[in-house]
């Protein structure tokens, strides 16, 4: 619902986007991006890396064959071990307490954060999806089932079966005592975290097959469909409070405070107020005309830090937008080919997984006045 209780549905076709009022468009700058200064390169034993994770000042990585941990001030990884998964790791490491979860379609492994030694593993019965961690639990999909295991011991706590022959590939979401999952059958399920019992289910096949990303913030769920919609959903009963239609497929949305930020191939970065679904601001990346300062596509997940939105395009240009109004603050060109992920360590340093399986740390682009 909108602020006055009415339904909010924002639908933006490419035509309406291009002729919309310019007052929503901060000024674009055409200055060429300067190369970012390289600070350190870490070689890993992987041919391909997933996006890395930052936890308590340390970097955790995984990829084709190995998982590891890096202290940014050190020249070599603190540890690096074969993860022994049936195939390559497919998602960024998840870290909670003294445990690190890595995995791919063939299973997941729980490692000791201190040295990478194995604690337990789950071998896929069908195909494992992306997990979510909370307190002492890890919850993930295996085929059409949602499975919960004890984070410390790996003991199975419960499993919930959705519709056979569907695939729970995307991460569930945990909010309070409940697990929320949209596993590919057009239904959003709310399960009890302790027991796996069904609390409620909402069938929404008309709107989605998968919910490819579900986040919780400000007391509600913000979920993206596999197509072009972003939804605000009430966690109590699954009611759709608002939906934003971007006019084309959207990349994974990123939550920062009360904003959901996303890029649409219509040529815009949007910042959506998650309480109302209204557009707080938008920044044009592409006008599909000749010349100009058009960006390449954004396949890397957006990131944020210290009031800035980090965007990385497929031509390896990093741009920082102001989270307050969407203005372009600065940009820089990564010295090398990036595997489409960006991780700010702090306000001065940024890490990228590279196409050759290494991790590159550079200086963040300079912002005038900082």
UniProtKB/TrEMBL annotation:
Cytoplasm found in the keyword field: no
Keywords linked to the UniProt accession: Signal
Signal peptide feature range: 1-32
InterPro entries: PQQ_b-propeller_rpt, PQQ_rpt_dom, Quinoprotein_ADH-like_sf, WD40/YVTN_repeat-like_dom_sf
Domain Pyrrolo-quinoline quinone repeat: 105-244, 266-358
Protein origin, superkingdom: Bacteria
Family matches, as PANTHER family: CELL SURFACE PROTEIN, OUTER MEMBRANE PROTEIN ASSEMBLY FACTOR BAMB
Protein name: PQQ-binding-like beta-propeller repeat protein
